[in-house]
Every structure is written in C-alpha cells, then in structure tokens.
Design a protein that fits this description.
Distance between the termini: 24 Å
Order of helices and strands: HHEEHHHHEEHHH
Number of strands: 4
Helix content: 55-70%
Radius of gyration: 17 Å
Strand content: 5-15%
Shape: globular
Length: about 210
C-alpha cells in the first residue's frame, strides 16, 4: 500500500471515532471485557499517543528489525509466555490514561490531531523503536490502523452506535495485516477456513488488545 493510502487509512480510522467519544452518558458502563467505556477509550487513545511519542523520540540506529506482522507476532509470543503480566500491563496503562473521563473526548481530538500531524511530517521511512522491535513508520501505522478499526468497533458496540463502521480503507489495511500475521504464525490455512466460514473464527484469530 502506498504511503498516501496508508496515511489515509490511519487518519480516517482515527477521525471516524470522533462521534463515538461524544456518545457516552456514563463512562463507567461496560466497554470490553473488564474494561469500562472510559478505559476502552483510554486504551484506544494510546494508539495515537504511542504514535506521537515514538515519532518524536530519537531516530533508532540501524534498519528496521520487524514488519507490522512481526510486531504483533512478538507481542503474541510475549503474551503467551506471560499472559497475566501482559494483561495487567495493558490494563494498567489503559486505566492510568483515563484521568478525568469528562475530558476524554477533548483529549481524544487533541491526540488525534497531533498524531496525524507528526506522522505526516515524518514520512514513511522514519524509523520508530517499540518494545517489539524497530519498524519504519510505513509499517508501524498499519498496527495503529488495526487498533483503531478494531477498538472503534468495540466502542461502537459498547455505546450502542449500531450504524458505525470503520472506513473501508482502514478495514482493508487491517484485514491484510491479520492475514499476514496468520501466515507468519503458520495459521494461514486455518485463517482462510475461518474467513470462509468453515471453522469458528475464535479457534484461529489471535487475541489483540
């Protein structure tokens, strides 16, 4: 996918969530699993915050070490090795970003605008260092688009926005990445079977949070 289209997938996925952050009347209602709506949105906001922070950090030395699929493969390996620590860390970061729930909508828009601005200025070849390897920005944005599309759907379900859909360009990018991840983890055949209704998806698709 060309950089302009990848950037559009990221930008449009983030902007599409704007109406969802204005919907909640009670931020303490269930969001996803044990998370409240406020915690789910705070977790989703991290997809923007980490993008900003990684781009603004010093340029990593050396070439990229992982692709977007490799990034998730490393995450899933870590989670499989120590699921309690992984879940606790993810939940703790989300809870720590809630702050004042009534300010979440404004913080979301500020973070969205800042993240889109910094990645546009940085360009596709800018390296970013993450806990799961060094990626160029062209690849890292794929992980953020996937997070935004999936958690956008989570938020829509939580707040009753039944007619909400992620932008098609973001969905296409997210599905392509999940396919690459399945092949990398030697689950490509099962992924095809799940996507064509031959086996239950929950037997194949990884847990991403």
């Amino acid at each position: 996918m060309a950089w302009t289209r990848r950037l559009e997938a990221f930008r449009s996925a983030a902007e599409a969530i704007d109406p969802l952050v204005d919907t909640p009347t009670d931020w303490s209602t269930p969001g996803l699993g044990t998370w409240t709506v406020a915690e789910l949105l705070a977790h989703t906001l991290r997809a923007l915050q980490t993008t900003h922070d990684y781009v603004m950090a010093p340029q990593p030395a050396g070439p990229p070490t992982v692709t977007a699929a490799g990034y998730y493969d490393a995450y899933l390996t870590w989670r499989a090795d120590d699921p309690e620590s992984a879940d606790a860390l993810v939940a703790g970061r989300s809870q720590g970003m809630v702050g004042d729930p009534d300010d979440l909508a404004d913080r979301w828009r500020r973070a969205r605008g800042t993240a889109v601005s910094v990645v546009t200025d940085a360009g596709p070849d800018r390296g970013v260092e993450t806990p799961f390897g060094v990626l160029n920005l062209h690849e890292y944005l794929r992980t953020r688009t996937l997070e935004l599309a999936v958690h956008g759907l989570d938020l829509a379900r939580a707040v009753g926005a039944d007619g909400w859909h992620p932008p098609r360009v973001a969905v296409a990018d997210a599905i392509a990445l999940l396919g690459e991840l399945a092949v990398l983890r030697a689950d490509g055949d099962q992924f095809l079977l799940a996507m064509t209704g031959r086996v239950p998806p929950d037997e194949v698709l990884p847990i991403l949070r």
